[in-house]
Amino acid sequence: MSIYSQISSNKLKTWVIITLFVIFITILIYIYGNASGYGLSFAGIALIISGFMSLGSYYYSDKIILSMSNAKQIAKKDNRELFRTVENLCLGGGLPMPKIYIINDSAPNAFATGRDPKHAVVCVTTGILEKLNKLELEGVIAHELSHIRNFDIRLMAIVVILVGLVALLADFFMRSLWFNGNRRSREGNSVQGVFLLIGIVLAVVSPIIATLIQLAVSRKREFLADASGVLLTRYPEGLAAALEKISKDKEPLEVANNATAHLYIANPFKGKISGSWFASLFNTHPPIEERIRILRSM
User: Fold this and answer.
1) Helix/strand/coil for 100
2) Which of 24, 64, 93, 134 gives the lowest tally of CB atoms within 10 Å of its CB?
3) Residue 175's domain spans which residues?
4) Active site residue 251
């Protein structure tokens, strides 16, 4: 498969998943509204709260992530080779120069964050600088810059907000059962009873489904960033070799947590990766072996 077909395929799959997610939320709103007796006003409350949450997430999530990761901003004089690598790739990709941060951790990893290319950050660990050669590091940086150029940072922020909205809807619905139980028992009908039963089931499983969709989008964007990164370097083997080294290094990243794990170029928890099909649904990243295979087939 060519680089361009890889990019087109992953973009299409991402938007199919996003479309299905929106349809899923619309169905939830319809069922919860009918089951609670509030109709569309039920969804309105959740949307208002979600809107305030999204504003905070949009403007401050990068600062929160960098603080949680103990990342420190560096200047050009601190690591000229790293700066030259980022600058050259930005020139080739027509991107503004992002801020560069370093995490003092010997585990090799990297991530990008920010709300758009003009407000972006590339962050690497000291481990990745020590353990990768120049071409491998270039492949990693190109991958992270591709996340910025593809607006993956913004897309994943939107997906996180949608996941939060699903959790809010489920919570509001379950709380409404307590506040309006007596009125429903007197005025309810068989149709509303069916909606009520379906609503209770969805309130339990919908946050899990939403999380699975979020992780599926994250995995597709990793494939997309791999392919887009190769367009910047014109050297698939650089990123493939980097991923191979990162996967063989068994040291977990100490500052990583469940909230930030999906941002990194490879799963930072290393030993906690499970191989079963069901468990793979909950992985933040696609199998690294598959990523390497696709890169080497380009």
Assistant:
1) strand
2) 134
3) 1-298
4) no
